[in-house]
Design a protein that fits this description.
two-stranded antiparallel sheet; 11 helices; globular; mainly alpha; about 260 residues
Amino acid sequence: MRAFTALSKEALLDAIRRRIVAAVILLCLFSLMAIDGFTSCAGNVSLNGEDVQLAEMAGASGAILFVALGLWIAVLAAILASDHLQQTLEDGSANLSLARPLSRNTFALARLTGVLAVALLTGAVLLGSAAGLLNLRSGLALGPALIAGAHVGVAAFVCATFSMTLSLWLPRLATMLTMLGFIATMATANLMSFVPREEPWTGSLALLDRLGPPLAKAPIAALANWMPVAETGLNPVLSGAALWIWAGLGCAALLISFRRVELGR
């Protein structure tokens, strides 16, 4: 346990030293400004020929904001993980660490923890700010936001584990592009499932929506109480369980793949 804690701290410091963290801080500042502007919107809009106050749409707009921020956090986790473990293989630090009585599983999970610490801290700041402002300005309950935030954290874990796994076999750029494409496609499939249809939805996107990780669907399910008018038809427990299953699969894939990597290459 002491070794894992020490390695996790080292991994966190390595992540903080990277230049991308400066970009993350700037993006957080811009995101906070956007959240402040988004939650302060007031006035009327025309919907189907009728004037609707924006305050009446606070639940739906708040859910959209949460899903967008959740996907951004998942992308951030995937980018940070795209070389955080592979880099230790290239510079030889993995060989030095594993020369001690230390398992590969412990080393890989410690590197993953360092990545997730940065991504989840960013998520806590953004989602916490959004939830607080929506509660203060629109009266939206904090309970659903907490559950949705937990789902976002698990989704970030899923994306980080698969990104770190791919990085063991693919170059960093290829890993990043693959994960960005996967997150975008998965989110599109999740959102397309809410489009009203006269016949059952079929096709590759429908299959992906049913079998893939509900990166966007799980937070929406948790925020259903914000949108009493909209019938999502989702079960928050089942959606969250599906994310946890994918988290287990991603963790297993990472650990198995890292065991198969030749350290001397």
